[in-house]
Every structure is written in structure tokens, then in C-alpha cells.
Automatic annotation (TrEMBL):
GO molecular function ontology, one term from the record: phosphorelay sensor kinase activity
Catalytic class of the enzyme: transferase
Record keywords, A-Z: Kinase, Phosphoprotein, Transferase
PROSITE patterns assigned: HIS_KIN, PAC
A Pfam family of this chain: PAS_4
Residues of the PAC domain: 112-164
Gene source species: Solidesulfovibrio fructosivorans JJ]
Segments forming domain Histidine kinase: 177-399
The keyword NAD is annotated on this UniProt entry: no
Protein name, per record: histidine kinase
Catalysis performed (reactions): ATP + protein L-histidine = ADP + protein N-phospho-L-histidine
InterPro entries: HATPase_C_sf (IPR036890), HATPase_dom (IPR003594), His_kinase_dom (IPR005467), HisK_dim/P_dom (IPR003661), HisK_dim/P_sf (IPR036097), PAS (IPR000014), PAS-assoc_C (IPR000700), PAS-like_dom_sf (IPR035965)
E.C. number(s) listed in UniProt: 2.7.13.3
Keyword Kinase: yes
Length: 403
């Protein structure tokens, strides 16, 4: 077909077509700009929401590798690049998953799983409540898990303090009544025994010497036992009496001896099962700065737990020593049933107990940790199922802490 010059109508049609194309292109560009603005605004809103969350957050793969974390994670854990590492490497320094891992359970069940556990971070035991939730994305066939870790240490401490305060208030009322009821007959027994002791020289002239020796021995024993009963009542009152916390020099050796004196009757009953208690106390042990009443409470709880852990014959070894770092240590070792590995993280959790009903409500060890932390100390445990446990309390020799 021979070429012909375009007509005016053709040129007008082409211009209209171009104009329509550019108008559509401009509208598309403006729509993209609006969408991009909305997307950027949405991203900023999501970022603001995430920044406002004060819990530790992380996304895990099925093999428990960390994909991403939030800013709180980086503030709590010093690792500058946690991505790609296993979560248990950072939290525990272990090469295997933690017992009762909620992330693993969430992967297996597809449900939201919860768990509480204690982690040691920067030298301090911190209790976390963990929530693991599956993340489902239609474009990603691999399932991920979102984990929240909330610090509930202070909350648990307040709960333990509340229940401990209630218990100690009840014991205080009972101890006051018991002290009056016991001291009255004790005073009479002590008075009459003292009267007999004063008459012994006169009786010696008329009584057979062998019989007289026995009578003197009996009177001396009565007086000694009366004094011991008075000491026991006094010690019981110091455990239960509410008083202002005051830090002063405290001897751990004296704490051990006073606690054993208080539990002598309980130990005597348990001796039917042939439980032996041995002490290895350092003679030149330095004083620690603390509240004697509270430190005795720690010793009492550890010793009672050690006795309850032993079924049948066994032994308890109480040791005091000083570490090269200067810390003064108290160790309570038992040959009891030990602690299963899956329960190690829960030992110091309020209301966690493996004792049968009526033997404890699970606030003893939690209270111990609260007291030791208040004294700027540390409490640790080593245990193997069937081989017993060792609880070690470390306290600084000198602190600037005052009540």
C-alpha cells in the first residue's frame, strides 16, 4: 500500500490516545504513591507498637534457631548478633533444648503454650513467664514460632512475701501462746529443781552416797533440760517474731547451731530412720552483714527440705567455709531423692513443690532466694536424681546495705 501522510483526524486521534495513556499512567503512579504512603505509615505504626512492647520477643525456626528479635531482647542479652543461633545457646549456654520447652510443644501441637522458668542473666536469677505461639503464613510453607518472655521475678517475690507474711503472722500468734503455756510449768520445774539442789548438802549426811550421787545427777539434768527448753522457746520466738529488719554482723556458725537446736526434737523423731547430721564448720569464719532472723529462716528451710528429701537411712552434711573470692558460704548436702532435671528451673518458683499434700505449699525456697538476694548474695543448687542435692548460700563479708 502506498504511503500517505496522516490526516488531521489521525493526528488528533493519536494525541488523544497518548493523553489517555499518560493520564492513566499518572493515576497509576499517584495510586502507587498513596499505597506506598499507606504502607510506610502502616510499617511505622507496627514499629511503634513493637517498640512499645516491654517483653522479650523472638521468632524461632522448627529447630529452635533465632530468626529475629526485638529491641528488648538486645537490651537484656549482650549477644550483638543472636540471629542464626539456637535459643538455648543464648539462654542456658547448653547444646540441647531446655526441658519442657514451650516452643517445642507449640511446634508439635500447633497450640499456644506457656511455661515459667528461671534463667541466670548477668549473674542474677530472673524468672520469666514464656508464651509460644505458632505463626501461619500462606506464602511460607515453613512454620515459625513467636515467643514472648516476660520478667515476673518481682511479681512472684511479692506473692511469696504475702503468703510468707501470713504464715509467719500465724506462727507468731501461736508461738506467743505456746511460750506462755510452756514457760509457766518450766518456771515451776526449774524453781523446785533449784530448791532440791540447795538441799543436797543437807541430805548427803543422811542418804546413801550412791543414791545421793544419782539424785545430784538427776537434779543437774533437770536444770540443764529446763534451760534448754527455755532456749528452744526463745529461739522459736526469734523465728516467728515480726521485727524491723536490721543488718548487723552475723555468725553463720551460730546460725547453724541455733537452727539445729530448734530442730533437735524433729531430728530425734527422724532418727528412727537413721538419719545422721554432721557439721563441718570453719573455725575462723568471718562474720557476714545481714539480718540474723532472716538468715536463720534460710537455714531452717534448707535443713527441713533436706530432711524431707531423705526416705530411710541417710545423712545431712552442713558446711561453712570461705571462698577465695572472699564470700562466706553455707552448704547443706543431703543423700535424698534428688531433683529431676525438668524441675531444676522451678525449684525457686513460688508455690512449686513436689511434696505430698500437707508437707508444704512451695514457698520455702522462693523465700530463701528472696532473702539471699536481699543480702546481695547468691543461692545455687546441684542435684542428681537418686544421689541427693547440695544447696550453697554465698554471702558477702562486708556490704554497704542497711535496712
Amino acid at each position: 500500500m502506498p504511503w500517505r501522510a496522516p490526516s488531521l483526524e489521525d493526528l488528533i486521534g493519536i494525541e488523544h490516545s497518548k493523553l489517555g495513556f499518560f493520564q492513566e499512567l499518572r493515576q497509576t503512579i499517584e495510586a502507587l504513591k498513596d499505597a506506598n504512603t499507606q504502607s510506610s505509615q502502616r510499617r511505622r505504626e507496627i514499629a511503634a507498637i513493637l517498640d512499645g512492647i516491654t517483653d522479650i520477643m523472638m521468632v524461632l525456626t522448627p529447630d529452635l534457631r533465632i530468626l529475629s528479635v526485638n529491641h528488648v531482647f538486645r537490651q537484656v542479652f549482650p549477644d550483638p548478633a543472636p540471629e542464626g543461633k539456637f535459643c538455648y545457646e543464648i539462654f542456658r549456654g547448653e547444646n540441647h533444648p531446655c526441658p519442657n520447652c514451650p516452643a517445642q510443644r507449640s511446634f508439635a501441637t500447633g497450640d499456644i503454650c506457656r511455661e515459667t522458668a528461671i534463667f541466670k542473666i548477668n549473674g542474677k536469677n530472673i524468672q520469666f513467664e514464656m508464651v509460644a505461639s505458632p505463626i501461619h503464613h500462606p506464602d511460607d510453607p515453613e512454620q515459625h514460632i513467636l515467643v514472648f518472655k516476660r520478667d515476673v521475678t518481682r511479681e512472684k517475690e511479692y506473692q511469696a512475701k504475702f503468703y510468707q507474711a501470713e504464715k509467719m503472722a500465724t506462727i507468731g500468734m501461736l508461738a506467743t501462746g505456746v511460750a506462755h503455756e510452756v514457760n509457766n510449768p518450766l518456771t515451776a520445774i526449774f524453781g523446785f529443781a533449784e530448791g532440791l539442789r540447795r538441799r543436797l548438802p543437807t541430805l548427803r549426811e543422811t542418804v546413801d552416797p550412791a543414791v545421793m550421787d544419782d539424785v545430784e545427777d538427776y537434779v543437774t539434768t533437770i536444770l540443764q533440760e529446763c534451760r534448754r527448753c527455755q532456749d528452744i522457746v526463745t529461739t522459736l520466738l526469734t523465728f516467728s517474731r515480726h521485727k524491723t529488719v536490721s543488718f548487723s554482723p552475723v555468725s553463720l556458725n551460730a546460725v547453724v547451731e541455733d537452727t539445729l537446736k530448734l530442730l533437735r526434737s524433729h531430728l530425734r523423731q527422724r532418727n528412727q530412720a537413721k538419719i545422721t547430721v554432721r557439721t563441718e564448720l570453719c573455725e575462723d569464719l568471718p562474720m557476714v552483714s545481714g539480718d540474723e532472723h532472716q538468715i536463720k529462716q534460710v537455714m531452717l528451710n534448707l535443713l527441713v527440705n533436706a530432711m524431707d528429701a531423705i526416705v530411710g537411712p541417710g545423712h545431712i552434711i552442713i558446711t561453712t567455709f570461705q571462698e577465695a573470692s572472699g564470700a562466706v558460704c553455707l552448704s547443706v548436702e543431703d543423700s535424698g531423692c534428688g531433683v529431676p532435671k525438668e524441675n531444676m528451673d522451678k525449684l525457686f518458683e513460688p508455690f512449686f513443690t513436689t511434696k505430698r499434700a500437707g508437707k508444704g505449699i512451695g514457698i520455702g525456697l522462693s523465700t530463701c532466694m528472696t532473702i539471699v538476694n536481699k543480702h546481695q548474695g547468691e543461692i545455687t543448687v546441684k542435684s542428681k536424681p537418686g544421689e541427693g542435692s547440695v544447696f550453697i548460700v554465698k554471702l558477702p563479708v562486708n556490704t554497704d546495705k542497711t535496712s
